Request: fold
Amino acid sequence: MKNNYRDLPPRWDKTNNLVYFSYLLVLLFFIWSSKQVGLSPLELLKGVPYMIRLLSEMLPPNFSRIFPLLKSILETLQIAFVGTFVGILGGFSLAIFAAKELSPIPKLYKISRGLIAFFRTIPDLIWAIFFVATIGLGTSAGTLTIIVDTIGFSGRFFAEAMEEIEKKPQKALEAIGISKIAIIFCAVLPEVLPSFINTSLFSLEKAVRSSVVLGLVGAGGIGIELKVAMEMFNYDQASTILILIFILVIIVEQLSVNIRNKYINN
Amino acid sequence: MEKFTKSSILRDSHEILKVTNLSKSYKNKKVLREINLNVSYGESVALIGSNGSGKSTLIKCLLGLTNIEKGEIYTNQIRLNMKNNNLLKFYRRDIAFIWQTHNLVPRLSVLSNVIHGSLNSHPNPRLWYQAFAPSEIRSRALNCLDQVGLKNFAKNNVNTLSGGESQRVAIARALMQKPKLMIADEPVASLDPKVGIEVMNLLKDLTLKQGITLFFTTHDLKHAEHYANRVIGLKDGVIKINIKSKELNELDVDEFYAA
Ligand SMILES: Nc1ncnc2c1ncn2[C@@H]1O[C@H](COP(=O)(O)OP(=O)(O)O)[C@@H](O)[C@H]1O
Ligand SMILES: [Mg+2]
Reply:
């Protein structure tokens, strides 16, 4: 058989030189950045003995302060739970105004979109520092942080979910003279409910992880215990705290998986 | 309700639907040209015409679902005014509308969907879901379901219904409105012929029994002859036929459908 190599399509689509050039730029930027940030296998290797020593000092965990620690991990969970709950309500209310064509007051569409984006783009740790500075150390600062962060996170997904659903059932109710608010609750909400549950559960998981960290800046919960233990070289207490955090995160994630399976996957 | 200006109410008319000089275009394309149309209380009228003749557009105009370019529409003696949201809601209140597809709210129960039909006259949040609705409303909804033969489906999720059952639930929701006028745009075009006939029979019987005026579009001439007492033929946005269905003769129809 005669070879037909000439008829084969090219292996690569023809791309212009500008594209190759930009690939090259990205590669160069990566090489330069790794140097800058000190990413080197050697450094990592040098650290290994210290890691081993730290780990050995962490073991066995010291459970002598288990009750106060349990109390503060509960506090972490409570911050996350209350913050997520209120944040989801806030995110949902804002999302109604931030969903195109649904917004009862179209003038507020841009404003609510902007507000959600603003809440989302500022990292939670910065919100925490802001609230600690303004309302003081403690759980209220942490809870407010989670609320704001959850509004930013869930509001965006809620609004998108409301925009993406099938519009015809809403149109059918609109055509017989039913008000916008009623349509949101009886035609939009039932359709987006699975996606709402999903987003709410993700918000809770996210909130639990961030409320652990928020303690580091004094916004309540277990984080501050971890910080103190590390700074006082009480590594065996630090490991107890890490175990508690691990258990909390696992429980919340497992719970969330179960709820998801129950309400969404069937 | 709102104060109506004199011109927005047509008193003592025996016409439930009155369209004068209605024109409508999409972009540069004229779809309806100077339509004049009257329907009396209690009539059953079929609107026929080939695909693209403007039937759905005319229906959208009647419901205030699209802006009209020129002309006036009165239903139930109220003039369509799309500028004022409350007037528009009031205008739509006594008009039921059956779409080609059922357009029920998915995931909700059949009963909740039927109850929604009463939300326009009772704007009560308790009617959003059947669980909160007053017994009197729930019982009326069950009654409407009974009329379409689906009394035992009240608790079912609408996602589990067949096409014909869904369309019947949509009819029950329409009855819940206690409408004076029932408009339907190819209500059985997405159903198989046998089920389609059942649903058309149901529409005809229920509207006749309850004194509701029926105005439907169809591309099935048999349905027009059988379920309507008057047939209106739309071609290129102009009314070409407007006669009693008994007087429909084949020659006219052939000529009407010819390109
Ligand atoms: N939203 C729209 N935008 C632009 N053109 C449209 C739109 N809806 C319908 N049309 C056009 O208007 C004409 C009439 O359509 P339609 O009223 O749906 O006809 P029918 O229901 O009789 O089949 C068609 O040519 C269609 O392409
Ligand atoms: Mg059509």
Remarks:
- The mean pLDDT of chain A is 88.
- The longest helix of chain A spans residues 180-214.
